[in-house]
Amino acid sequence: xxxxxxxxxxxxxxxxxxxxxxxxxxxxxxxxxxxxxxxxxxxxxxxxxxxxxxxxxxxxxxxxxxxxxxxxxxxxxxxxxxxxxxxxxxxxxxxxxxxxxxxxxxxxxxxxx
Length: 113
What we know:
The longest helix is centred in the first third of the chain and has 17 residues. By secondary structure, the chain is mainly alpha-helical. It has five helices and no strands.
């Protein structure tokens, strides 16, 4: 299949998982096993050992990491809107017209509070 923005969305899901869990979702001894995980296995739930992970964050990771492109966010903007809404409910986002890219601003708030 042709690579598109949804490939980057999958990568964002993997990064979001790793930020919360402290390890990659499909860690294995061989590259073949890692690739097999990415291709065939659903993304695991975040254990919450490093930090308490809200259910909406689990949902975000699962949607970004969906195997079928049609089940992922269809644009980065769609994912950002979801994150801004959730972070707004927590009082972490009060204004969305900041000069830095929204994805960077949101990722920073999720990762570093």
